[in-house]
Automatic annotation (TrEMBL):
A Pfam family annotated for this UniProt entry: GntR
Occurrences of domain HTH gntR-type (ranges): 9-79
MF (Gene Ontology): DNA binding; DNA-binding transcription factor activity
Stated name of the protein: FadR family transcriptional regulator
UniProt xrefs under CDD domains: WHTH_GntR
Keyword vocabulary terms for this entry: DNA-binding, Transcription, Transcription regulation
Domain of life: Bacteria
PANTHER family linked to this entry: TRANSCRIPTIONAL REGULATOR, GNTR FAMILY (PTHR43537), TRANSCRIPTIONAL REGULATORY PROTEIN (PTHR43537:SF49)
Origin species: Mycolicibacterium hodleri
Sections of the chain in a coiled coil: none
Length: 245
């Protein structure tokens, strides 16, 4: 068997891996200022350029924030869900994933979520959804589009499943772009869409209050399909990457 030579991982990646593990395990708490570069260079036995390359890796992952200047340094931060959404979105863009595919994935995730919310009909969840629905009635135009999109984000947030929430937020990040780019915010069509969406949200809230899980799922499935057709109808945009144009 012919074996090609194996390259040892770059030292900067190894340093980043050690620090990353320490952050995630809580060995270096959130908000901690890392030791000066000279001390870290000595501890790891690396040069300044290597250490700074490791910092760039960690900073791109939102695990540290590098402050420049005499009193600067690297402070430990927590990775954000926006970072995940941004990178996941780039992969979808690179793979040429269609916007319809993203909307269909949202429906697959959100419909069971509303079914579970109706089964639970938790008073705290209902109160939060009531607050969002009330706000929707007070805002219009572009702000109204954002408010109605936030209702979907709230369903994922209130579902209680952290993994599904994170995946949903990644899709939400892309759909939010599509809603802002493709939906009209003025005129008759926009007003009609606003009324339809607001009505669907109020009906869903009523079904969740009543514990009507099956009906909630059916309603939400129809609503998501209609929303997808409305947003994508007549649009020349077909893939996620088109939203960057």
């Amino acid at each position: 068997m012919e074996v090609t030579s194996l390259r040892e991982p770059k030292m900067a990646d190894r340093v980043a891996a050690v620090l990353r593990k320490m952050f995630i395990r809580g060995e270096i708490p959130l908000g901690t200022m890392l030791p000066p570069e000279s001390e870290l260079m000595e501890r790891f036995g690396v040069s300044r350029p290597t250490l700074r390359e490791a910092f760039r890796v960690l900073e791109s992952e939102s695990l540290i924030q590098v402050q420049r200047g005499v009193k600067g340094g690297a402070r430990v931060t927590s990775p954000t869900r926006e970072t995940l959404a941004r990178y996941a979105g780039l992969i979808l863009e690179y793979d040429g994933v269609t916007l319809k595919d993203v909307f269909d994935a949202r429906a697959t995730l959100e419909t069971p979520m509303v079914v579970q919310l109706a089964k639970d009909h938790d008073p705290k969840v209902i109160a939060e959804l009531e607050r969002i629905v009330a706000r929707e009635a007070d805002v219009h135009g572009a702000e109204g589009v954002d408010a109605r999109t936030d209702f979907h984000a709230a369903i994922a947030r209130l579902s209680g499943n952290k993994t599904l929430q994170i995946v949903s937020e990644m899709l939400h990040h892309i759909i939010e772009k599509a809603n802002r780019s493709l939906q009209p915010t003025r005129g008759t069509k926009a007003e009609q869409a606003e009324r339809r969406s607001g009505k669907a949200h109020r009906l869903l809230l009523d079904l969740i209050k009543a514990g009507e899980a099956e009906k909630a799922g059916e309603l939400w499935s129809r609503h998501l399909k209609g929303a997808e057709e409305y947003v994508l109808a007549g649009s020349e945009l077909s893939t996620v990457v088109d939203l960057l144009e």
